[in-house]
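Thread: "does anyone have the structure for this chain?"

Original post by V.I.:
We have the sequence but no experimental structure in hand. Need at least a predicted one for the grant figures.
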Amino acid sequence: MVEASRHPNIELRTYCEIKNITGSAGQYKVTIEHKPTYVNWDRCTGCGRCLEKCPVIVPNEFNYGLGTRKAINIIHPNAVPKKAYIDMNVCIKCKQCQKNCLADAVDYDMQPTYEDIEVGSIVIATGYETYDIAKHGDFGYGKFYNVLTQIELERLISPTGPTGGHLKRISDGRTPKRIAMIQCVGSRDMKTNAYCSGGVCCLVAMKNAQLLVQEYGDIEVSIFYIDIRTTSKDEEEYYARIRGENPQIRFIKGKIAEIREDPETHNLILRGEDVIGGKIIKEEFDMVILSTAMVPHPKSKEILDLLGLDKAPSGFFKEIHTCLNPVETKASGIFIGGACRNPMAVPYAVSTARAAAAMAIDFVSAGKFRLELINPVIDENLCIGCGTCERNCSFNAIKVGEDGIAHVNEIACKGCGVCASSCPVRAISFRYYRDEQLLNEMDAIISL
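Reply from O.Q.:
Generated one for you, tokens below.
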């Protein structure tokens, strides 16, 4: 990210939101809202002095509420740019940060600004969100202290996390000795999400289990799974090595039916099924880690509606063709990369993102746009401006203008013919496929 920020041909616009996108391929007009940070980033040096003086302490969203932050904050240690911002939702405006800022960077009067830019192509890489387990309360999450998710575990064992990389139980700060990991939470379930998260949860669980065993020699990790889905050769080799070389990591095929908490020790008692062993198990653990599903980013629907794109049944962005056009959308010049398309591990996210970037560059660098001439033509004398064609067009390529006549965007049009077949007055025809042409061809064939 630092390298990208220093590239002469890359402009980073952070702490922004896309408010509107109009136009078509090669000439998209994008309206960007620059949210107020209340800190002048041209002056801010990221020294952190303002954070030390701020008296307001709130839960840290980056650490998923496991740690705290100040009202004025740098979102995380590796942020680019590494600049402070003020959260006005919790700020009490004591102005201690402003008084102690040596760079005079704090500006309480900052207002949102708007910018309009024109771009030739767009790459969507909104990523994913984790399954909102707090909303459903599965496996005692949010009720029992020592039930966490994999991503919360990663923040705990991260050197920049709330505990400085030391694994501690939430209930008493003690290092756990026995940990259970439950797979497929919120996925492969018809009541929540029917799809699998691409084997990502399996790999994350194995990676974190290995890290814990390497760091703490006396720890035991039990992974309860439905199926271990390691799809590539490297992933399968990794799974075989983890399972064969680490006796402290157990793999138990079966579902957990319930979790109960010991009110005195806050240990967790799991009851479930061992499918391979053919028995019901009941074991006690110090901590339970839930491998939650990957779900579409909450902002995905806004972008889908804004650009008129399709979504898959899972809610992720839909590509034209999974195999042949995996990063292209139905809108010309708009590409998708990474986990916004479907759940995927980092290597696949990187490869699809690079493919999307390459196609976007190729799209605009040519300087010309190749069109198929098989596009609809509107007979203005017949068109009544009913809008039937506009409603039926899947590509937003035909609009009824202020003059009451339908107009075709030939760049966006894919020549599918739905508009012509749905027109009630037959005001739409296709080049090279007009009724007169077809009838003349038929007459010529019959006369032979």
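V.I.: this helps a lot. The chain has a mean pLDDT of 91.
O.Q.: and Residues 346-365 form the longest helix (20 residues).
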